[in-house]
Each structure stands twice: as structure tokens, then as C-alpha cells.
Amino acid sequence: RKEVEQDPGPFNVPEGATVAFNCTYSNSASQSFFWYRQDCRKEPKLLMSVYSSGNEDGRFTAQLNRASQYISLLIRDSKLSDSATYLCVADRGSNSSASKIIFGSGTRLSIRP
Amino acid sequence: EAGVTQFPSHSVIEKGQTVTLRCDPISGHDNLYWYRRVMGKEIKFLLHFVKESKQDESGMPNNRFLAERTGGTYSTLKVQPAELEDSGVYFCAGRGLFYEQYFGPGTRLTVT
User: Fold this and answer.
1) pLDDT, tens digit, for every residue of A46-92?
2) Do residues B32 and B75 touch, judged by C-beta distance below 8 A?
3) CA B16 to chain CA mean position, Å
4) Closest-CA residue in chain A for B108?
5) The pairing of beta strand B10-13 with beta strand A107-112
6) Phi first, then psi: what are they for A82, rounded to 5°?
7) Dihedrals φ, ψ of B57, to 5°?
8) Under a CB-based contact definition with an 8 Å cutoff, are residues B75 and B83 in contact?
9) Cα gap B70→B57, rounded to integer Å
10) Distance (Å, rounded) from C-alpha A15 to C-alpha A38?
11) Given an 8 Å threshold on Cβ–Cβ distance, is A91 in contact with B56?
């Protein structure tokens, strides 16, 4: 079993739709969580950090449930430019300099006009 | 602020040859990471530097891979001798204040 699991997709949704991605992690030592976005043949770019209290950035909302070891990303009013692969990332590091960062395999999203 | 840079962007070498990849992180980023993405697989952690010291190199595949970060600024990753299975995209990243990662554009390595 992978340490960070995501539905690989692809998700193919119409413009304006709401889409939700889920991610689970198996290592309870994981401390920090992130969603990254990766466009085709490009590097991953940070989309948002994920906090237990939930956080929102415009059309994007991220949630973390530590008890269930579950992370989610919600995209509202999706745009064509949201088409990309979304990577769920867990970082075992805490306040020390040591960290072990685990990437999910990514969920592909395609927004159609 | 300049971003993370990597050189070369592409490298095609023959099996048995040596290749050295370079990463220049954002100035001030003491924590530097190397990752690799093999086609069809997820991004995998290779190693982590704190300044010039290797904090964690548990992800390095084998002793054909050697990473250095002399002076705690740029880093190099050398593969010697390269094998076919080393093909992939090699990313480096620096860590920000809140543990977020800033990735370079990657080096696409093809071993033939």
C-alpha cells in the first residue's frame, strides 16, 4: 500500500463544475500536508497548504482530518486553466530539520468547455 | 526573487556514461531536496540537504548516485555509471518557511 494514496482520475468535468479530490495517508507521523499542481511537463507548484481547521483560497478549499488521515481539495466554479495534475503531499517533518516528503501519484483533472 | 534553476534541462546519454545535474536553489533556502519522477510513477524523494550536510539520503537508489552541496549553496547530483532505469525527470526543491517546497523546472534524463 502506498503511503499517500490518491484517485488517479482522470476527472473530466465541464467548466463551472465543482470537483473534489481525496487523498489518504497511512503514516500518522506526517505533520504537514500540501496540495501541489503540476502542469504537463512542468514542475510541481504549491497550490495550498492544508490545515486541520480547513483553509480556503478563492475557489479552492482544503481540509485535513487527522483522525481519519484524510485530506481533500475542493475546486469551485472550475476554469479551463484548472486542468492539471493535482498532487497530495505529506511531510513527516515537524520542527526539526529532518523531513521525509511523500507524494501521491496525482489526480489528473481535465476541464472541458 | 529568482526561482530555483536546474541545469541542464535535458540530457541524453548512453548507458555507462556519467552525468552531473546541477541545482541552484532560491538564495537563503538552507533545506534542499532532490526528487526523481520515473515515467508513470509518482515523484520519489532522493535526499535532503541542510546547508552542506546530508540530512537524509535514504531515497538514493544505489551508490551510483552521488550528491554534493559544497558551501551550502548550489547542489550537484552525479550518476556514474548511468543505467537505463535511471531515466526520468530529476527535480530539486528548496524549502520555505512553512515547509512548502519550491521546485526547479527539472532535468529530463534519458539513458539509452
Assistant:
1) 999 998 888 999 999 999 999 999 999 999 999 999 999 999 999 87
2) yes
3) 19
4) A41
5) unpaired
6) -80, -10
7) -120, 30
8) no
9) 16
10) 19
11) no
